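User: Predict Transcriptional repressor's structure from this.
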Amino acid sequence: MKKPAEEKILEDHISAKSLKKSSQRKVVLRMFLQHGKHLTADELYRIVQKKFPRIGYATIYRTLRLFCECGLSRELKLIDGITRFEPQHGYQHHDHLVCTCCGRLVEVVDPEIERLQEKLVREHGFYPESHRMELYGICRKCRK
Ligand SMILES: [Zn+2]
Ligand SMILES: [Zn+2]
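Assistant:
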């Protein structure tokens, strides 16, 4: 069976950092990709625990850091101060609408806004690299 690209990226990163290979990291990666829409380390820990009770929180946390280092994941720091992680590899850029009532995250992308952001950056003599945009509000469900 062919290895998924994500596994390869992780393996390369692990050998580049001369870390020991571990099967636990692979498990964490698989579970993260399956469930990883804006998960906190704690949420992922609880998901993994159900199937792999021997994997500790510290391993989950460290592994998520590794994912971020090699571009498999990105960190999402919202105004609630909680860090969430989301898969990055193979995903298109998107921004988020955040419900301040229930915490729901909606992924959005608007070509017009993207373009304007780039224009703004360039007008200030910057070369655009990346951005994050979060818009806070109350979602449809919570407004009812
Ligand atoms: Zn809501
Ligand atoms: Zn997202």
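Residues 99, 101-102, 104, 139, 141-142 surround zinc ion (ligand 1) (CB under 6 Å).
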